[in-house]
Amino acid sequence: MEPCRSLALLAGSLALTSVLVAVSTDFWFVAHGPNYSSHSGLWPEGDQHSVAGYIRVTQTFNILAALCGLASVGFLVLSCIPSLSAPGQGPLVSSITAFIAALSMVVAMAVYTSERWNQPRDSQVQSLFGWSFYLGWISVPLFLTTGGLSLVAHCQAPRPNYESL
């Protein structure tokens, strides 16, 4: 297996893992007060009809990024098995889906960051972004790396010529 494809598969797997962990945990926002500490995530408990619009947008684009990341990793795995993939097309499709996943994550994270950043603050409560939030941001460069390495792997792949037909 080519080094670029192997590194793309590693970066894609790490990106997919970080998105899935970020989406499934509830440490996106942490608040510490004088007598309490709390944290919240993308899936608030209770009445689902009163969930803020920016949370819905963040949920949607995170799920879209996870699905595109899964497709990207899947096409990379399939490209390693010549009998299951079209010659040279697996890395190209993987690259496209990885870039779509990165774009989806940028939209999700930018919406969440801007909305949380602009919320009113209390002087006695310290509000911070949590580790789940940072995992979401870490997935963006990992998806971009996956897309770039997959594109390099596609460009380096041998092309069929007329003699082989």
Notes on the protein architecture:
The chain has one domain (3-23, 51-120, 133-157). Strands 2-1-3 form a three-stranded antiparallel sheet. It is mainly alpha-helical and 165 residues long. The mean pLDDT is 85. The chain has helices spanning 3-24, 53-79, 90-117, 131-156; strands spanning 29-32, 37-40, 126-129. The relative contact order is 0.23. It has four helices and three strands. Helix 1 (3-24) runs antiparallel to helix 2 (53-79), helix 1 (3-24) packs antiparallel against helix 4 and helix 2 (53-79) packs parallel to helix 4 (131-156). A hairpin with a 4-residue loop joins strand 1 (29-32) and strand 2 (37-40). The protein is elongated. It is 62% helix and 7% strand.
Unreliable spans: none
Strand-residue proportion: 5-15%
What is the helix/strand order? HEEHHEH
Main sheet: strand order: 2-1-3
Q: Helix tally?
A: 4
* Large-scale geometry: elongated
Major sheet summary line? 3 strands, antiparallel
Rg calc: 20 Å
Q: How many angstroms does the end-to-end distance come to?
A: 24 Å
Structural class: mainly alpha
Mean pLDDT, to the nearest integer, reads 85
Q: What is the number of domains?
A: 1
E-strand count: 3
Helix content: 55-70%
Question: Which keywords apply here?
Answer:
165 residues; mainly alpha; 3-stranded antiparallel beta sheet; 4 helices; elongated; transmembrane; cell membrane
SSE blueprint:
Blueprint: H1 3-24, E1 29-32, E2 37-40, H2 53-79, H3 90-117, E3 126-129, H4 131-156
Antiparallel strand pairs: 1-2, 1-3
Helix pairs in contact: 1-2, 1-4, 2-3, 2-4, 3-4
